[in-house]
Amino acid sequence: MLKAIYGTKDVLPKDVEKWNFLESTIKNIFASFNYKEIRTPLLEETGLFSRSIGEETDIVSKEMYTFQDRSETSITLRPEMTASVVRAFLEHSLSSQSSLNKLFYIAAMFRQERPQAGRFRQFHQFGAEVLGSSSPLLDAEIIILAYTILKSLGLVDITVKINSLGITSSRKVYLEILKEYLESHLNELSEESRKRFEKNVLRIFDSKFENDIQIMKDAPKLIDHLDDESKQEFQVVQNILRSEQIPFLLDSSLVRGLDYYSKTTFEIVSDKVGSQSALCGGGRYDGLIELLGGTPNYGVGFAAGIERILLALQNEKTKLPDNSSLDLYVVLLNKELLNEYYLFATALRKNHLKVEIDYLSRSVKAQMREANKLRAKFVALFGGEEYAENKVVLKNMGTSVQQVLPLENADKEILLSVGS
Ligand code: AMP
């Protein structure tokens, strides 16, 4: 039997309701902060990601879906959105149209990782990218937005972790101090971390090996070596978060290994999702636009994983709104009225009622069973003696109260009844 590709999954109708709820909540909150949606192609030239995400990262070195197309161009299915958004920003000179661009997206991403709960090969992220301002107000706003969305979706057990990476020059000085400390522990570090020591020493903070974690606990912290500007802006961010009553933890091990990251970095984790606990991550990336060939400009953003949020909601036993019930099921009593039956339902559908009918020539009893199964609020009994008198019976399935309505204005009466 043909199956979906390993690590990808179908979202079946019973779950699409949840996705729609998530997506509409996300869009409403972005709208209230005046963020504009951007959509970019799934496919990009591979160089975009290898330059921006970095050759040494797991994403670029192991996880990208990369192939040669028929004209021998190396193409990659996007593994994240920041690079694509910045590419579009530069390609369409968005900064000349508006000096500040506040953008958001909801889109599919692709990474060939080992699938497990909360980790897929095709997954979906929503996120924001703000291009054009260095204001720490935006660093705070990005965190507030992510937190507000997660809370509005119903999540309770979440923790915000923040850190500041300073600017490249202060980080360079710190990296030497860190290397000096690690030199005396090189033999104790895992092989992976020893490699990182050579290539990208900051990433040793991301190590999952217990021994490495212990060694990094005593390492000098980047936060203690910040430049004055970053220090002061980090205070502004924290003050805003406190005023907005957003609880957060300072986490000095929250690092991003690439040079273009600067200042604020943050993560929101769920306390209810096993090992894949990160729901959302983001921060400032003031060097990226220049790295991708643009005039130096500022950027800050975040990305959150939809599948992981759904898993966290499920583990927290959060009930999501359910709009799957029907307004009305029309039961056909006499098969010879098929045409009139269909027209009756269609007229109600044109009035935006959610109406279902029988397409399977079922018995009246089976149609009533179906109406119950579909959780119809009302059932109309179409046909029989009432039809002969130009009438139709409307039954309220909640109260079992029945009304007999004249056919000619049944639609108006039904609209009134369903609406009340
Ligand atoms: P990242 O782009 O790696 O910073 O990831 C941002 C968010 O996307 C994470 O916090 C996760 O919620 C989600 N995410 C990343 N990779 C995956 C994946 N393979 N499967 C599902 N969600 C993912």
Description:
It is built from 16 helices and 16 strands. It is of the alpha+beta class and 420 residues long. A hairpin with a 5-residue loop joins strand 3 and strand 4. Helix 1 packs antiparallel against helix 6 and helix 6 runs parallel beside helix 10. The site of adenosine monophosphate (AMP) has 17 residues, from strand 6, strand 10, strand 11 and helix 12.
Features:
five-stranded mixed beta sheet; eight-stranded mixed beta sheet; 16 helices; binds adenosine monophosphate; 420 residues; Rossmann fold
Structural class: alpha+beta
Q: Percent range for helical residues?
A: 25-40%
- Domain count: the total is 2
How would you characterize the largest beta sheet? 8 strands, mixed
| CATH class call of the largest domain | Alpha Beta
Radius of gyration based on Cα positions:
28 Å
Principal-axes shape call: elongated
CATH architectural name of the largest domain: 2-Layer Sandwich
Please provide the count of β strands.
16
| Contiguous runs where pLDDT drops below 50 for at least 5 residues | none
CATH topology of the largest domain: BirA Bifunctional Protein, domain 2
Distance between the termini: 49 Å
Which range does the strand content fall in?
15-25%
In order across it, which strands form the biggest sheet?
A: 1-5-6-11-10-9-7-8
Mean pLDDT: 94
Please give the count of helices.
Answer: 16
Q: What is the CATH homology-level superfamily of the largest domain?
A: Bira Bifunctional Protein, Domain 2
| Distinct small-molecule ligands in the complex | adenosine monophosphate
